[in-house]
């Protein structure tokens, strides 16, 4: 019984952490989207992923409600603040679009790892009813990471071309 209790605790903590992580993702992506001028494909994907992320948060809230828990407002606020600071830091860079792309790619992989672990904790704790929703979140994170990877050469080439033409290329 100890393993089930421990796995349940890991699962609950993981759910709360995932909710805060998605809140942080929003605090990173929304400022990026508002600043993009020259990269419409990136803007479209960020807009799509913001909506996916909002749905992911709702799924996590549903799972938490199903186990009589709620998300941690403190964790949400703390990670939202750090996400906002990261977005602000990149906005000062002359190659903001590239730095944002690198950071977004890394963050998507962080989220992928978190969901793989969370799905495992759900299975270990017997919360198998949650795995379908968690796998949906995982799939969306994998899709976004794949899009960034596939399009990073395109974004880099566009950045180089804009820079070479003397145009503002950062966003």
From TrEMBL:
Gene3D superfamilies: 1.20.1260.10. It comes from the Bacteria. The keyword Nucleotide-binding does not apply. InterPro entries: DUF892_YciF-like (IPR010287), Ferritin-like (IPR012347), Ferritin-like_SF (IPR009078), YciF (IPR047114). Residues 43-70 form a coiled coil. Keywords: Coiled coil. Pfam families: DUF892. The keyword Coiled coil applies. This is Ferritin-like domain-containing protein.
